[in-house]
Write a structure and sequence with these properties.
The protein is mainly beta. The protein is built from 3 helices and 13 strands. It has a 13-stranded antiparallel β-sheet with strand order 1-2-4-5-6-3-10-13-12-11-9-8-7.
Length: 266
C-alpha cells in the first residue's frame, strides 16, 4: 500500500477515512487523503484516533468517552500517523492515549476510555428537543462531511450562519460494529458550532481547542440522529458550548462539549 492514496473514480466515503494501515503494534496510518483547500477537519482526525485506540482493546469493550486537544492545524492532503499508548486494561475498562502526527509534529492528542457494557438502570432526565421529524424536512449540505445526509429543523437561535439543531445520518453501508458507529458519531460531532449564536461583527468563533464526547447508549449512525448544540459562555478569547445527540426515538445516545477560540476575525 502506498503511503497516501486518493480515491480514483468514486469519491471516498467515511469508511475509507476510518480504514487504517497497521504499521506496527499500536502504530497506524490513515492513508485516504482529500484534495480540498481546507485544513484537516477536526472530526476526521478525532474519529481516526478513536478507531486506532479501539483496535487495541478487547472486542467486548466499546467507547464510553473521549477527550481530545487540537494542537496544530492538520493537512487534509497528507496521511496522518496515529500512535496508541495502552495505559491500562482493567476488569471492565480500558484506557488509551492517542497521538496524531503529520510531518513529525503532533496535531492532535486524545484520551479515550472503553467499557464492557453492563445491564442496569436506564433513565433519562430530560426529553429530546421537540422538533420536526427528518422525513418532513428538506436536505441541506453540511460542508466537510463525507457520506452524511443532513436536514435542518426550525432553529432555536435566529440569524445564525450554520444550524445548531439538525438531523443527520450516514448514507454509507455501515457494518454492525459499535466501534465504527461511535467513530462516525465522533466524525459528526465536530461539525457546525454552538457558538454561532454568539457571533458579533467584532468577534466570532475560530479554531477548535478541545473536544469531548460521552457515549451513553448504543447508537446507530446509519439511522437518523438529532444534534442539538447550546452555547454557554464566551470569555478570555474562548467560547464554550455543549451538545446532545438523540436517536429518532428520543433516547440520549451521546453528549459532547467543545471550547474554541472566540475573538476578532483577522
Amino acid at each position: 500500500m502506498s503511503p497516501a492514496q486518493t480515491a480514483v473514480g468514486p469519491a471516498p466515503t467515511v469508511l475509507d477515512l476510518l480504514t487504517l494501515e497497521e504499521l506496527d503494534r499500536d502504530l497506524y496510518r490513515a492513508t485516504t487523503v482529500l484534495d480540498e483547500p481546507f485544513p484537516l477537519y477536526g472530526g476526521q482526525v478525532a474519529a481516526q484516533a478513536l478507531m486506532a485506540a479501539g483496535r487495541t482493546v478487547p472486542p467486548d469493550r466499546v467507547p464510553h468517552s473521549l477527550h481530545g486537544y487540537y494542537l496544530r492545524g492538520g493537512d487534509a492532503g497528507r496521511p496522518t500517523i496515529l500512535r496508541v499508548d495502552r495505559d491500562r486494561d482493567g476488569r471492565s475498562f480500558s484506557a488509551r492515549r492517542v497521538v496524531a502526527v503529520q510531518g513529525g509534529e503532533v496535531i492532535f492528542n486524545m484520551s479515550a476510555s472503553f467499557h464492557a457494557p453492563a445491564p442496569g438502570l436506564d433513565r433519562q432526565a430530560e426529553p429530546a428537543p421537540r422538533t420536526t421529524p427528518p422525513e418532513d424536512l428538506g436536505e441541506i449540505e453540511m460542508p466537510r462531511l463525507l457520506s452524511m445526509e443532513s436536514r435542518v429543523t426550525p432553529q432555536p437561535y435566529a440569524g445564525v450562519e450554520w444550524p445548531t439543531r439538525f438531523w443527520s445520518r450516514c448514507m454509507a453501508d455501515l457494518p454492525d460494529d459499535d466501534l465504527v458507529h461511535a467513530c462516525v458519531l465522533t466524525y459528526l460531532s465536530d461539525i457546525s458550532s454552538g457558538l454561532v449564536a454568539m457571533h458579533e461583527d467584532t468577534a466570532r468563533s475560530g479554531s477548535s481547542l478541545d473536544h469531548a464526547v460521552w457515549f451513553h447508549r448504543r447508537a446507530r449512525l446509519d439511522e437518523w440522529v438529532l444534534m442539538d448544540l447550546v452555547p454557554h459562555t464566551v470569555a478570555a478569547g474562548r467560547g464554550w458550548y455543549t451538545g446532545t445527540v438523540h436517536d429518532a426515538g428520543g433516547a440520549l445516545v451521546a453528549s459532547l462539549t467543545q471550547e474554541a477560540l472566540f475573538r476578532s476575525p483577522r
